[in-house]
Description:
The chain crosses the membrane at residues 21-43, 49-70. By secondary structure, the protein is mainly alpha-helical. It has one domain (4-108). The protein contains seven helices and three strands; from the N terminus they run αββααααβαα. The chain has helices at residues 4-8, 31-36, 39-44, 47-59, 63-82, 91-101, 116-125; strands at residues 11-16, 22-26, 85-87. It has a three-stranded antiparallel β-sheet with strand order 2-1-3, with helices on one face. The longest helix is centred in the middle third of the chain and has 20 residues, at 63-82.
Amino acid sequence: MRENKDVAMSKIKMRNEYTGQFKEVPIGFSWTTFFFGFFPALFRGDWKNFMILFFLGPLTLGIVYIVYWFKYNKIYTNDLISHGFKVIMTAEEAAFMSAKIGIPLPIIVSSSTPQVSQINSRNEEHPTKTSAQI
């Protein structure tokens, strides 16, 4: 059974391993775009989507805004991933969030969290004693 924090999670923390930059990316419906239009893209430094919203919004009589209300956070997450950002969470959390938003999320592999091969090699060095050996 999933913990409540997984279900209630509404942001993904991401980091670019090359620049060290951190971003918190909201998921789901974009309330900020709903209320403020193109300004969230402008403040996030997301120039491509800012230009789309700023110029195409009036030309399409606001239809592009309606689409972006539902898709902007997913588009922004994809753009960050394409620029080298990866999520900062466990593999289980990333799989859950990936299924929730419908895109694969790359995970930062931390040297502090042991990998499966590291765990297996530790078990070979220090095997546990069975009840028969005690």
